[in-house]
From TrEMBL:
GO biological process, one term: methylation
Pfam families found in the cross-reference section: Methyltransf_3
Organism field: Pseudomonas ekonensis
Keywords: Methyltransferase, S-adenosyl-L-methionine, Transferase
PROSITE patterns: SAM_OMT_I
Origin organism lineage: Bacteria, Pseudomonadati, Pseudomonadota, Gammaproteobacteria, Pseudomonadales
Alphabetical list of CDD domains matching this protein: AdoMet_MTases
Protein name: Class I SAM-dependent methyltransferase
Amino acid sequence: MTTLTSAPLAPLIERLYTQASAATSPMLETVSHDERERLMHSKTEYRQLYAMLKDLWLPVSRDTGKLLYMLARSTKAKAIVEFGTSFGLSTLHLAAALRDNGGGVLIGSEFEPSKIALARHHFEEGGVSDLVEIREGDALVTLASGMPGSVDLLLLDGAKALYGDVLGLVEKHLRPGALVVADNTDYCPEFVAHVRSPQNGYVSVPFADDIEVSMRLA
């Protein structure tokens, strides 16, 4: 058995996915589809969008969660950075991998205080709180300093228009062979173009419908 597939984490994750699927956002329902799409691509109004989304869990899929665990385990990750914690489902998968790798640290960033409070409760309940440090605020500030000297895996799953900016903050800390996993990449073509361009130091492939998995070469 692994941390991911045994109690207390396995039943917790299953319960949280059930809660996530039932969550609604009355505020978001007042915004037109075109306006949502505009905000998703905005580099200046993302705080407005995510305020509307504060009641939604926005989790990675179950399969993506398992993929994150597998990638972190297979690379023997000890230092992970996550952009966009939300209520912590992706964090739980990554922290499980850290536990099974013998320990480490996951630094996450989230600017919605209510989400941070509940996420921390989930980490306590799942028995992984000692592995997780969540920084409250805009990731362009919270992830600009205090990074581990060597980062093994970066998960991008916050405001999509900022993927390239967040990568720019963490990039110098990525060790050769480190992985960058980006979700919902249909909203960030500039980021995808960056990691797919050979001169930028990555080898990168699309995975499933809208995930990009990239490896830092040097």
